[in-house]
Amino acid sequence: MYRYSIYILIFSTLLLSSSDAQQGEVEYVIKPQFDDAWSFSEGLAKVNIGDKWGYINKEGQVVANPQFDDARNFLEGLAAVEIGDKWGYINKEGQVVIQLQFDDARPFSEGLAPVEKDGKWGYINKEGQWVIKPQFGYARFFSDGLAPVKKDGKWGYISKASFEK
Fold first, then answer.
1. Structural domain count, the chain
2. Range of the domain at 46
3. Cys staple from 87: which of 8, 97, 102, 148, with CB 3.0 to 4.6 Å?
4. pLDDT at 162
């Protein structure tokens, strides 16, 4: 009797594990076709085809043709993109809204983006105007009204409140 119970237990386990394998199968929403792909941000994802980056929507439709040498995720409606050695920003329709003029650029947060020009970092607004002129060795994004910046090899924080008066 004990032997039969063990056989039944083993057979049941095999049946369950084979049905689990079938449950593990996935259905592609967007079929594999990209050389690299990132997570969606604000409804768009950056994808790489060949050596160029572009953006797709959740239906897999291209909204910005792969034409960029590098690209960042969308935040606050804009994404930093690079062509050659210059960075600028595009909107969700793939149109350049801040000209490619920076040496490096990061995503917007709290309405500002850290960008590098001539080896120094500062901050621009969504119109591409300098809000804080380049003066830092490095600058990161604002969060809770503060942003970490590097000056003379040391890190500190700046406050949006100090220049929004």
1. 2
2. 27-85
3. 102
4. 80
